[in-house]
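Lab manual, section 2.4: Encoding a predicted structure.

Procedure: take the sequence of the chain (276 residues), apply the prediction step described in section 2.3, and record the output as structure tokens. A sample record is shown.
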Amino acid sequence: MKNPASPVQTHYHRDGLYEAIISILRQQGYTLDHITRGDIAGADEFHVRGAAVSKELAAMVDLRGLKVLDVGCGIGGPCRMLAEAFNCNVTGIDLNHEFIRTAKALSLLVRLDQQITFLQGDATSLPFEDNAFDAVWTQHVQMNIADKQKLYTEIHRVIQPGGYFLYYDIFRETDEEVTYPMPWADDPSISYLFPSREMHTILTSLGFSLISSTDQTRAGISFLENSFIKMEQSPSSTLNLSVLMGASAKTKLANLKEDMDKGILMLGSGIYQRMG
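Recorded output:
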């Protein structure tokens, strides 16, 4: 007997996700024997600024050839980018079974499955040995995790000394009420936003040292503004984040933009190094 799905799993679940992506590709005239990673980039990077910010983050430290864990990997877009562009040996883990099934199938489709392993699992109880990875990567994940201490303790545990933690995330800047639905939650019941300074406090107490951090908020707002224009102009068969978020995608993204405009939420990225 299967365990019942958690509210977070239920929020992200989409039946037949891989099949929906394939259907859109076919409508667009693609031949499945020749699909590339770029052909699916419109939907496989489930975070603000998509593939562009993933490339920026990856270029901030030398990840070439390293063993990398993507915590909260979604359908595997960043994993495939790290494997192809940086020759990384990548493991992706996500709570959502359908995301993992789709990630595996898409990686096989674009012929990157040999460098990537995908597992369903809990970010607060990682199924890996201590010091197993050179780097851990996470994007837009912690908002659904209540126990931040446990999340970052697990991340610290699986990074070898001298290794890197790279993040790109959404943080709360004020105590003002957040507008729902958001991409990660339809209501506050599964939303656990906190300030970036609290993340910094936890990480430094664990033994991480900050290398760099960047406020991505303005760039994120510009990205969302352009996304709305594209959504209006594009046919329904376009491969974009609507395939992951459904009919409410524009509302959720508009709410996120509004709360970033108001200064309630911010986007931030950065790199920490595990010291000893």
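Check your result against the sample. The mean pLDDT is 92.
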